[in-house]
Design brief:
The chain is α+β, with helices and mostly antiparallel strands. The protein has 24 helices and 22 strands. The protein is elongated.
Length: 622
C-alpha cells in the first residue's frame, strides 16, 4: 500500500500538480498575499513524501555507506525548512528533485519486448519417427537419440545431425548468413533454423536447455541481468555530501547563533542542479540523435559510447545490405553472349524457390530478357535444379550436382569458381545438353558508406573488428573491401559473445553493431549495442542500446562525437552546479540568503544547467 501510494505521488501527473501549487505559492509570496495555508504544502506532500520514503528505505535496506543518499540530504533540508516555517523552500527542493528523478527514469527505460519475441521463436513440436511411423510430439518431450523428420518449411525442433536427405537450411537466426546453407547426411543442424526445401531425417543431439536456440535465449537474459541500472550522480556524491552539509550547517549555527542561516546552508547544499545535470543533457542529446534517425534508449549508452575504443561489426545486413544480386556472368563458348546465358538460366530457375534462383530471375527480368516456359522442372534440395527449355536439358547448380549428372566441368569453369569463392561470392553453374556453358556469380552488396565510415573511425583511433557467421573467404573479401584488418568468421552466437568478452578482458570498451536475431546476445554483452533498425530484426533492435532507424552506418562516427560532447556537457554542468552551491553556502553563512532566496538560487542554477544541456540539441556533429 505504501509503495503504491509512493509510486502514484512520484508519477508525472502528480509531480505536475505539485509544480502548479509551488508556482501559486511563489506568486502569492511575491505579491505579499497571505493565505491560511501555504499552497507549497501540496508540493511538500506530493514531491517530498516519495523522497522521504526513499531515504528511509535506503537507511533500512542498503548496506554500508550506500545508506546515505541524496534523498536523505534533501529530506533533512526539507524538514528543517518546514521546522522554521519556510514551506516554499521545502517544496521547491523536493519538486526539483522529483523532476530530476522523472527525467533520469525516462532516459534509463529499456524495452523488454525483444526477449519475449526471441522466446516465441522456440519450436513447439517435432515429428518423431517411431517404428516407421510419424508422430507429432511436444518439443520438450524430445530426447537425445530420437529420430525426427523435418519437412520443407518447418522449423528444426532441436539440435541434431542429418542421417538421411538433402536440403538447404536458413540459419539466419543463428549465424546471420544471407544464404540458406546446403546440408546433407552427416551435417549438423540447429534448433530454431528453418528447413527450406528437402525433407530430412535427423538424430537429436542437444535438446531442451542444451539446444542452441535456448542457449541464445539464455545468453540474452544473462546479458540483460548484467546491465546495472544507472546510478544517479547525486547518490554517488551523497556519501560525503550529506555529512559535509550537516557539519557546515551545524558550524554555521554555532558560529552565528542563527538557526535560519544553518537551515539555509542545508537548503542551498541540496544537489538540485547536480541532479538535473545528467538527465537534461542526456534528454537533449537523445533528441539530437532522434533528429538524425538514431534512437538512443538510455543515457548510459551515450556515456559508454564516448568511451568505446573498439567497434565490432556483423557483416550481413550491417556492412552489406543483406540482399543478393548478380555480380558476374561468364559464358564459356564465346558465341554464347551474356543475355543468352541469362535467358537459359532464368528460364530454368523461374519456378525455383531458392534465393539464388530468384535473384537470377529478378536480374533477367530487370534487363528485359524474355523468359521461356520450362518443362519437367525438378529441384534437388541443396544441389540444384533441372528443366527442359526449348528442347534443351538444362542443369543449374553446384559443381557436384553437374558431375552427378555426367557433365564435365571445364578447366576454365574451375578457375572461375575459385575466383568467385575467393571474392566471397556464391555461384551457379549452367549446363545445356550435357555441356557446361557458363557460371553466374552472386554477391551481397556492400553499403556505399561502409569504407568511408571505417576510415573515419580509424582517424578517431577506434579499432574495427568483423564478427560474422559467414565463411572465412566471404568475410575476408568484404573486410578487405572496407578496410577492416581484424576478421573473425564462421562464428555462432555464443562465439561472437566469447570474442566480445575476450576483447573486454583485454581492456577494450566494445561496441557491437548488428542486425539479426543471432546478434542479440552480442549486442547485450558489448558495452554498447547498436542495431540496424530499418531492416534489422525486432529482437536485435530491442536487445540493442541504440538503433539506426535509417540503417545508415555512417552515423557511427556521429554517435561517438555526440556522446563525447554529452559527457563533456554533463561534467561542465556538474562543475557549475558545485560552484553555485559553494557561492550560495558562503552567502548563507554571511546571512545574505534565506531559505526562500536560497531556493530561488537553486532555481537559477537549475535553469543554467538546463540551458547548457539544451545547446546539445541544435549543435552540429556531422
Amino acid at each position: 500500500m505504501t509503495k503504491r501510494l509512493n509510486d502514484f505521488l512520484a508519477g508525472v501527473p502528480m509531480t505536475i500538480v505539485g509544480g502548479v501549487f509551488l508556482v501559486v505559492s511563489l506568486i502569492l509570496m511575491l505579491m505579499k498575499i497571505e493565505v491560511p495555508v501555504d499552497p507549497a504544502w501540496v508540493s511538500v506532500i506530493i514531491c517530498g513524501l516519495p523522497l522521504l520514503y526513499l531515504a528511509i528505505w535506503r537507511i533500512i535496506y542498503n548496506k554500508g555507506m550506500s545508506k546515505i543518499s541524496s534523498a536523505l540530504l534533501i529530506s533533512i533540508a526539507m524538514m528543517a525548512a518546514v521546522a522554521i516555517g519556510d514551506v516554499f523552500a521545502a517544496g521547491e527542493v523536493a519538486f526539483i528533485m522529483a523532476i530530476g528523478a522523472i527525467l533520469e527514469e525516462k532516459t534509463a527505460e529499456r524495452s523488454k519486448k525483444g526477449l519475449k519475441e526471441l522466446i516465441s521463436l522456440a519450436p513447439q513440436q517435432g515429428r518423431r519417427i517411431n517404428n516407421g511411423q510419424e508422430e507429432m510430439i511436444n518439443a520438450e518431450e524430445i530426447k537425445v537419440g530420437y529420430i525426427l523428420r523435418v519437412l520443407p518449411g518447418e522449423i528444426i525442433p532441436v539440435d541434431g545431425k542429418i542421417i538421411s536427405g538433402n536440403t538447404s537450411v536458413d540459419q539466419a537466426i543463428m549465424t546471420g548468413e544471407s544464404l540458406p546453407v546446403d546440408k546433407e547426411a552427416g551435417d549438423s543442424v540447429f534448433c530454431g533454423t528453418i528447413n527450406r526445401f528437402g525433407a530430412i531425417d535427423m538424430e537429436a543431439t542437444d535438446v531442451g536447455g542444451d539446444s542452441s536456440l535456448q542457449k541464445l535465449i539464455r545468453m540474452v537474459q544473462d546479458a540483460e541481468n548484467k546491465q546495472a541500472p544507472i546510478q544517479r550522480i547525486a547518490d554517488k556524491w551523497a556519501t560525503w555530501l550529506v555529512p559535509v552539509a550537516l557539519f557546515i550547517a551545524v558550524v554555521t549555527y554555532f558560529i552565528t547563533q542563527d538557526i535560519v542561516r544553518g537551515v539555509t546552508v542545508l537548503v542551498v547544499f541540496c544537489p538540485c542542479a547536480l541532479v538535473l545535470a545528467t538527465p537534461t543533457a542526456i534528454m537533449a542529446a537523445i533528441g539530437q540523435a532522434t533528429k538524425h534517425g538514431v534512437v538512443v534508449k538510455s543515457g548510459e549508452a551515450l556515456e559508454k559510447m564516448g568511451k568505446v575504443d573498439t567497434i565490432a561489426f556483423d557483416k550481413t545486413g550491417t556492412l552489406t545490405f543483406g540482399k543478393l544480386e548478380v555480380s558476374d556472368a561468364i559464358s564459356f563458348p564465346e558465341e554464347l553472349n551474356e543475355n543468352a546465358l541469362f535467358a537459359l538460366a532464368a528460364s530454368a530457375e523461374a519456378r525455383s524457390e531458392h534465393p539464388l534462383g530468384k535473384a537470377i530471375v529478378a536480374y533477367a527480368r530487370d534487363k528485359g530478357i524474355n523468359l521461356i516456359d520450362a518443362e519437367g522442372f525438378r529441384m534437388e534440395a541443396g544441389k540444384g535444379i533441372y528443366a527442359n527449355v526449348s528442347g534443351q536439358d538444362l542443369f543449374c547448380g553446384s559443381e557436384k550436382y553437374l558431375k552427378e549428372n555426367g557433365i564435365e566441368i571445364p578447366l576454365q569453369a574451375g578457375d572461375t569458381l575459385n575466383k568467385l569463392r575467393n571474392e566471397g561470392k556464391a555461384s551457379i553453374l549452367i549446363a545445356a545438353d550435357g555441356l557446361c556453358v557458363g557460371v553466374i556469380g552472386l554477391s551481397d552488396v556492400l553499403r556505399p558508406t561502409a569504407k568511408e565510415m571505417v576510415a573515419e573511425l580509424d582517424e578517431m583511433d577506434t579499432q574495427t573488428v568483423l564478427l560474422t557467421g559467414d565463411n572465412s573467404r566471404t568475410a575476408d573479401y568484404f573486410a578487405n573491401q572496407v578496410g577492416i584488418a581484424s576478421v573473425r568468421a564462421e562464428l555462432l552466437p555464443e562465439e561472437k559473445v566469447q570474442n566480445i568478452v575476450q576483447l573486454q578482458q583485454e581492456g577494450k570498451s566494445v561496441c557491437m553493431i548488428g542486425d539479426g536475431v543471432n546478434d542479440a546476445p552480442a549486442l547485450k554483452t558489448a558495452s554498447v549495442g547498436v542495431a540496424m533498425g530499418a531492416m534489422g530484426s525486432d529482437i536485435a533492435v530491442d536487445a540493442a542500446d541504440i538503433a539506426l532507424m535509417s540503417d545508415d552506418i555512417s552515423k557511427i562516427p556521429y554517435l561517438k562525437r555526440l556522446s563525447n560532447a554529452t559527457v563533456r556537457t554533463i561534467k561542465f554542468s556538474i562543475s557549475l552546479s558545485l560552484f553555485i552551491n559553494f557561492v550560495a553556502i558562503l552567502m548563507s553563512f554571511m546571512g545574505w540568503l534565506t531559505p526562500t532566496t536560497g531556493a530561488l538560487v537553486h532555481n537559477a542554477g537549475s535553469i543554467f544547467v538546463v540551458l547548457i544541456a539544451a545547446k546539445l540539441y541544435d549543435r552540429k556533429f556531422d
